[in-house]
Amino acid sequence: MSPRLVRAADDATGRRDVPLRITVDGVPLTGIEGQTIAGVLMASGRTSWRESPSGAPRGVFCGIGACFDCLVAVNGVPDVRACRRRARDGDEVATRSRAGRDAR
Ligand code: FES
Fold first, then answer.
1. CATH topology of domain 18-94
2. pTM
3. Best residue among 48, 61, 85, 93 to mutate for probing ligand 1, ranked by most atoms within 8 Å of CB
4. CA-wise closest residue to 19 among 27, 28, 11, 10
5. Measured in angstroms, how far is the CA atom of residue 83 from the centroid of ligand 1?
């Protein structure tokens, strides 16, 4: 899946972007209100943020909450599907979903 964000100025729907800021592993990222955490990550250029037990990269696979490949921890809550959780201003995201696992 390749990330793509239509700029508000180019969007025929006339949407207005309300910016938000989250941190991912302590690194600040900006997004827009309504984006999922996966959307913010992908818009920043990241297409994977964890690894399977075999070491294969994992990020968004299904994008609809069915596969659990996109798990992250949000504000200390583990195993949150990044493709389903809307980013909120001030969210602290950790790509390590559980201690000692999912490191990337
Ligand atoms: S990408 Fe499949 S659950 Fe998130």
1. Ubiquitin-like (UB roll) (3.10.20)
2. 0.85
3. 61
4. 28
5. 5
- CA 77 to chain CA centroid, Å, is 14
- CA 72 – CA 58 distance, rounded (Å): 11
14: β partners:
none
Cα–Cα distance between 58 and 70 in angstroms, integer?
Answer: 7
Domain extents in the chain: 18-94
Q: CB pairs under 8 A, 24+ apart, for 3-6?
A: 3/42, 3/43, 3/45, 3/47, 5/39, 5/43
Quick check: CB of 66 below 6 Å from ligand 1? yes
Give all strands (DSSP E) within 1-104, no chain letters.
19-24, 27-32, 48-51, 57-59, 71-74, 77-81, 92-94
**Residue 61 Cβ < 6 Å to ligand 1:** yes
pLDDT in tens, 10-40: 989 988 899 999 999 999 999 999 999 999 9
